[in-house]
Fold this sequence. Notes:
Elements (H helix, E strand, L loop, with lengths): L3 E3 L6 H4 L2 H7 L6 H7 L2 H7 L3 E3 L13 E5 L5 E4 L3 E2 L7 E2 L8 E6 L6 E6 L5 E7 L9 E5 L4 E5 L4
Antiparallel strand pairs: 1-2, 3-4, 3-11, 5-6, 6-10, 7-8, 8-9, 9-10
Amino acid sequence: MLGFSRSSDRTGADEAAAPAEEQARYPKARTDAEWREKLSPQEYQVLRLAGTERAFTGEYTDTKDVGVYSCRACGTELFRSEQKFESHCGWPSFYSALAGDAVEEITDTSMGMSRTEVRCAACGSHLGHVFAGEGYDTPTDLRYCINSISMDFRPGTTA
């Protein structure tokens, strides 16, 4: 059984938004009831309530196969394996998201710190966080730290 913790506060406007407002902001938005029906309880906890799966427990942490990582909630392509790197942090790490607006970055001041939450730009689901300036030898000096449970992986598909 995976352990989860809540990493950011998604109460207020985001969680209570009317379906029309969500639909306008996120083209693949669903109602809360639809998300609960589509997602497992663990997926719902992370994707819709901004939880975090326990470090080193996710299915993609050590995956080295070539392919594309997509949002588990809506199927939107988010990351390619070519941008994945070993950060040894316990979650899959990428130095770049796909070009365009695949992800949305939002300031997260929960947990007594300021960091940047990463959400799927198509459905608003929580993916993880992005950190800058940690000194990793990557082209961007960014680390997108993403919950495995937030993604699906399609092997063999590349740019």
